[in-house]
Design brief:
The complex is a heterotrimer. Chain A is α+β, with helices and mostly antiparallel strands. Chain A has a single domain (40-217), classed as Trafficking protein particle complex subunit 3 (Muramoyl-pentapeptide Carboxypeptidase, domain 2), CATH 3.30.1380. Helices cover 39% and strands 11% of the residues of chain A. Chain A has helices at 41-56, 62-87, 99-115, 160-172, 205-217, and strands spanning 121-124, 133-138, 177-183, 197-203. In chain A, helix 2 (62-87) packs across helix 4 (160-172). In chain A, 27% of the residues are buried. By secondary structure, chain B is an alpha+beta fold. Helix content of chain B is 43%, strand content 18%. Chain B contains five helices and six strands; from the N terminus they run E-E-H-E-H-H-E-E-E-H-H. Chain C has one domain (3-154): Beta-Lactamase. Chain C is built from four helices and five strands. Chain C has helices at 31-50, 58-62, 110-124, 140-154; strands spanning 3-9, 15-20, 80-83, 87-92, 98-103. In chain C, helix 3 (110-124) runs antiparallel to helix 4 (140-154). The longest helix of chain C is centred in the first third of the chain and has 20 residues, at 31-50. Chain C starts with a strand and ends with a helix. The chains are: A alpha+beta, B alpha+beta, C alpha+beta. Chains in contact: A-C, B-C. The B-C interface holds B 4-5, 20, 22-23, 25-26, 29-30, 72, 75-76, 78-79, 82-83, 86-87, 89-92, 94-105, 107, 121, 123, 128 and C 26-27, 29, 33, 37, 40-41, 43-44, 47-55, 57-58, 73, 75-86, 102. Strand 4 of chain B pairs antiparallel with strand 3 (80-83) of chain C, so a sheet runs across the interface. Chain C: This is Trafficking protein particle complex subunit.
Chain lengths: 218, 178, 156
Amino acid sequence: MSHVPTGKPTGKEPAGLRYPTNGKTIYHRPLNRSKTAELSQSSFAYLFSEMVTYAQRRVTGIQELEKRLNNQGHPIGLKLLDLLLIREPARSQTRPLNIISLLQFIKMSLWQHLFGRQADRLEKSSNPDTPDEYMIIDNEPLVNAYISVPREMSQLNCAAYVAGIVEGVCDGAAFPARVTAHSVGGNEDGEMWPGKTVFLLKFQPEVLEREALIASKV
Amino acid sequence: MVIYSFYIFDRHTECIYSKLWLPPSAAAAAAPATPATANIVTGDGAGSVTLAPRGGPHNTDRRSVKVKASDDAKLIFGTVFSLRNMVRKLGGDDDAFISYRTGQYKLHYYETASSLRFVMLTDTTTLSMRSVLHQIYINLWVEYVVKNPLAPVEHKGGDGVKNELFELGLDQFVRGLM
Amino acid sequence: MTVFALIIINKAGGLIYNKTFYEAGLNKISTNDYLVLAGTFHGVHAITSRLNPVKNPANRASASAGGMLTRPDPPSGLEVLESENFRLQCFTTLTGVKFLLFTDTTQANVDQTIRRVYDMYSDYVMKNPFYQLEMPIRCDMYDRKLLSYIREINNR
């Protein structure tokens, strides 16, 4: 005669979220359950193309266009942080607590989830004046696979959308940062990777302050 | 190999001879009254239109076929003329347009030094007919038209081309190929 | 085996792309001449599809497999043009865009080549948010992919 729900089905369970017996909810697996869980790159390319065209309406400059793309990605980053953490094994289900582990999380888990591979490199700014800057490098961003930026907009990099996602992850993990995407294909090894893109993460000063505090305590 | 039709254009861009060998089904669909080999010598378009119908049940059919044939001849000339110029422009002055193919038919082209143009329409699987057109020129045109003392120098309106020997020879030669 | 040049004509007969891969293949003509050529070809192509000497008999449609009524294919225009110095293959997409590939006279498998060129067009031009339909194609990525593909064929 207990009101506490037991494991057995009682016929009138309390309303609310029900957990399967193995504890795995729909959040633990991808919606697409086909063998390889692949999505069509073409569909995405057309969708993204329309997103860029949409963002291009009534904007005055490239800065504003990138800002809009960034804003489109931001909420995705926030949600993905939660989703990817819940899918981690229970013991490692913790939010990244320092910059390095956050960057590792982005480079590995986030990139793997979004693009099916890891980001190519992580770098810390070598300039002593800007210790708050970190870089994630992608040699050929998936979103730019079919995009040729016209010459008069050469400053633009449509991976600003991905930068928005990264920014969302950082914000969600309480590492507020400003993330921008820059094309560096024209540089030293530009021949090899013409679409090479650097995502520049500039953390807010309080993040570095906290980081220093943690480091001193350990 | 199927040969659909054959045209000769003179250096004044006029169609001086045309002959159709339509497959029986198509000929029947196009003109029930005409025999399977419709033989039409066209002048300029106006000339063939002014041919007054002489009465009889199938005259309108016959005339529409005639008008269509003369339209076709003009379109064909326009096409080969444009393509020939395009080929000359791109391939150099020594280049020559040989043939083109669509999904339904193939058009072969041969131009003599005297700017006489021979055009033949065949089915798509036919190989190059350039030598065939050359033979028609050498063995039929030169023999029966050029060497004919009664044929005029200019074949305005098809004058002198429509003689028995040439037509018979052409028909036999083409039927021999098919 | 050499691919000389590629021309793309939009559905209104305007020249939207033109690239030479092998300089010695065709005569050099000015951009204006190319525009004229595209327009002329567009017109000729339309005429060649009308000149079809074989009229589809009405009973052929009903004779197709399974007794299903099918519409006969619309007559296609010019597909291959041969001259003494070059060969021109034309591929018309369902949307009316024409791809003209100029090759030498012995080139084989141009069908596949032109298909691949169309594939790349649909990837790097049609999926590019900065491309405006019917306008001249200015896409670095398309240029780059096309060049490396054709270079591979020409060096084979």
